[in-house]
Amino acid sequence: MRVIICKDYDEMSRKTAEIFAERIKAKPDIVLGLATGSTPEGLYAELVRINKAGEISFKQVRTFNLDEYVGVAPDHDQSYRYFMNEKLFDHVDIDKANTHVPNGKADDLAAECAGYEEKMKAAGGVDLQILGIGSNGHVGFAEPGSPKDGRTSLVDLTESTIKDNSRLFDSVDEVPKQALSMGIGTILDAKEIVLVASKESKADAIAAAVEGASSTDCPASFLQEHGNMTFVIDEAAASKLKSADSYEKA
Ligand code: PGA
User: Fold this and answer.
1) How many angstroms separate the CA atoms of 146 and 58, rounded?
2) Interval between CA 48 and ligand 1 midpoint (Å)
3) Is this prediction's pTM over 0.90?
4) What are the CA-CA distances from residue 27 to residues 58, 62, 119, 133 (Å)?
């Protein structure tokens, strides 16, 4: 497990984009696992910049997103499909047919989840997964209590996640209560994982994820067991790590 502490959000985003650009250059048809949320926005902006500069191409890249709200159509401005189009896909040379986000409006949600796992498997599995972290330690929408071997499934969002996400909606009542999300088992199958975190509000979750005991109370703590795991975090998110001095500086 590697922990890289960056000065601030911009350095965190640049450092993460460097890792992504290297991997895309090494494997042009790489399978990326992607995440939504405020934290990876800087990474996506940097990847757009590097793509426009001609340093990397997404022509053959394939992507699978972690999660999607249930009952929210892909063209709804709060859907995660919409977010990905807006932040990344519409601005790079990717073939949208190669981009996958679970369909939260599917008639049969269980079949949608099973089919999503099948598609990932058929693509050869995720080579490089980007993750954010919830203030409650969730990754994707694998909320506290999620099993370590969980697969893509229909999940209930916790009160804390609904509250955190309400900033993006007109009112807390409008936040969907359920989502389709990769499970911890799905996420751990990725060959390489990078988790980004920024701001003091993530400091407790990062301390539990990096230095806490492996436990369903903090689903991100299971990532410690992955063989190719890197946390790229800013100083504020690192502020509650006991061994902060012993980690790499960007
Ligand atoms: P955020 O969300 O990047 O918007 O803080 C992260 C998450 O909940 O996984």
Assistant:
1) 33
2) 20
3) yes
4) 11, 11, 19, 27
